[in-house]
Amino acid sequence: MEVRSEMFKDRRMTPLKEAIFWTEFVLRQDDTSALKPMILEQPWNVRTSIDVYVTFFLLVTISPLILIYGILRLFRMSK
């Protein structure tokens, strides 16, 4: 903890001075569109990761069905 405490205290500016710097920085700029989060530009399906959830759902549901189908075909072939 002492090492981390020293790392935290080893700063160029105090948190208050840093907050003042960034506030003044934003006020000096004419165009602050570069400071907007990129998530505002992304479509809803990327923001919600719906494609990842759908892919995972399909893998979880279809894989066992394919496995069961293959096992049933093996049993039918052996008869």
Describe this structure in words.
By secondary structure, the chain is mainly α. It has one domain. The chain contains 4 helices and no strands. The protein has helices at residues 2-9, 15-28, 44-47, 50-78. The longest helix has 29 residues, at 50-78.
Oligomer description: single chain
Q: Topology as H/E string? A: HHHH
Number of strands: 0
- Judging from the principal axes of the Cα atoms, what is the shape? elongated
| Spans where pLDDT lies below 50 across 5 or more residues | none
Helix content: 55-70%
Mean pLDDT: 89
End-to-end Cα distance, whole Å, is 69 Å
- Count of helical stretches: 4
- Taken as a percent bin, the fraction of beta residues is under 5%
Number of domains: 1
Radius of gyration: 28 Å
**Major sheet description:** none
Strand pairing plus helix content: what structural class? mainly alpha
Short description:
The protein has four helices and no strands. It is mostly helical.
Supply the key terms:
0% strand, elongated, mainly alpha
Please write out the topology:
Elements: H1 2-9, H2 15-28, H3 44-47, H4 50-78
